[in-house]
Amino acid sequence: MAVRLMRLPTLAWRKMASLAAFGRSLCPTSPLFPAPACGNHGSLLRPVRHLGSGEAAGERVLQVDNRCSDQVLDFPGGKVMFVPEMRFLPGSANERINCYRVLDDNGQTISGSRFQEVSKEVAIKMYSDMVTLQVMDTIFYEAQRQGRISFYLTSNGEEAINVASAAALTMDDIVFPQYREPGVLLWRGFTLQEFANQCFGNMLDYGKGRQMPIHYGSSRLNYFTVSSPIATQIPHAVGAAYSLKTDGKNACTITYFGDGGTSEGDFHAALNFAAVMESPVIFFCRNNGWAISTPTEEQFRSDGAVVRGQAYGIHSIRVDGNDALAVYSAVHAAREMAVHDCRPVLVEALTYRVGHHSTSDDSTKYRSIDEIEHWKTARDPVSRFRKWVEGNGWWSEAAEVEHRSSTRKELLRAIQVAERAEKPPLSELFTDVYDQVPANLREQEKSLRETIKKHRNDYPSDVPV
Ligand SMILES: Cc1ncc(C[n+]2csc(CCOP(=O)(O)OP(=O)(O)O)c2C)c(N)n1
Ligand SMILES: [Mg+2]
């Protein structure tokens, strides 16, 4: 047999392979150690790694079998065919990746569509939470315009993504949000009073008033605190998912991010890490067409985010983000794969940011009003889901009026309470980072107090000094 030998340094590869093998062995439902609860399809889908037979310390021996005319290279990851033609892979396929959908624009299920059943109780909660989110966005946005809170950001147009994805998870699953997903927290039981306390930064706010409005978080509800820097939460979700796996928990993590977030290095590192370590994490990309004023055509040249999952060896799906049933079904299936097969999954939801990026933005400066109106009316996810829920006889105009009115009243009351509540004392600015406040921070506190004393009128009167 004619065998050509190639020697490659292998330390990095060897480390990755052994870590991955370690990870697989930890997974309670690993395809290598199949348990009854686990569908053993992982072994069929997982690329086979060949570690080579003639390895010496610090080097790898690759074997090239020259026996047949179609040469095959036995290479880490599997066998690779040799071909005589020089052919570059195209940057994109001729056709774009399809988008999974269940409901048509009129809220009717598309014939032949396959989706996860939703009970009456869950469907009503899904719809009513979508409406609550709309009411919340309208009132908080107005409160910002009145100067009562400093900042706000709506989820208009992305209500189905928020609520339907949350509905498909369990409370043990841990959420790592970007910032346009308060509906996930709402679904989990964050109260309107808790939302208001955070936006007003009062002493009942869990962040003790240190963050801008909309930076919600709740350890009770397994929801990590929103952090402004884009995409930093994505690697965190991978690490947390890996720890869920090592602890043998029947849970996964989910992390949300926008189309803009996929341009950050953290996104790429996280996907690769998750794939190699087989972390049970759902990457949920809200592709809403815009990253503030940057349209997706200027954000990436790939067919959105979904193809990037495949590039990293991750099961991926594109879904209509304005179709609550499609989002629910896709996340439900993704969760099954993540938890039972111990693998990451990427969901790309196509949607549109109907509102301005935030209260610091005016999107009519960079996109047409016609475009916004089209998505707001013809493609509205809330009215589409309402048609389906009403069509099942589970909702009515009377229920709609009652729910909108009672939510509005409850939120206005919560805002009044939050606004009147005391602010956290100034000293809290310097706590909770170090166990003992270090000398430099104590100095800064002293200096701040002196400055406030000198310029009392320049500082808010309602902050206890
Ligand atoms: C690391 C980092 N760079 C830039 C910003 C400023 N910034 C805030 S939001 C945003 C756009 C994010 O767009 P996308 O991820 O698509 O989310 P969307 O707002 O559309 O929901 C940018 C660039 C930031 N917060 N963090
Ligand atoms: Mg975006």
From TrEMBL:
GO molecular function annotations of the record: branched-chain 2-oxo acid dehydrogenase activity; metal ion binding
Keyword hit for Oxidoreductase: yes
One protein family per Pfam: E1_dh
Compartments (UniProt record): Mitochondrion matrix
Main localization, broad class: mitochondrion
Keyword terms, alphabetized: Metal-binding, Mitochondrion, Oxidoreductase, Potassium, Transit peptide
Recorded GO CC terms: branched-chain alpha-ketoacid dehydrogenase complex; mitochondrial matrix
Keyword Mitochondrion (UniProt): yes
Classification via Gene3D superfamilies: 3.40.50.970
Catalytic activity of the protein: N(6)-[(R)-lipoyl]-L-lysyl-[protein] + 3-methyl-2-oxobutanoate + H(+) = N(6)-[(R)-S(8)-2-methylpropanoyldihydrolipoyl]-L-lysyl-[protein] + CO2
GO biological process: branched-chain amino acid catabolic process
Residues spanning the signal sequence: none
Cofactor: thiamine diphosphate
Recorded family membership: Belongs to the BCKDHA family.
Subunit (UniProt): Heterotetramer of alpha and beta chains.
This protein's name: 3-methyl-2-oxobutanoate dehydrogenase (2-methylpropanoyl-transferring)
Source lineage: Eukaryota, Viridiplantae, Streptophyta, Embryophyta, Tracheophyta
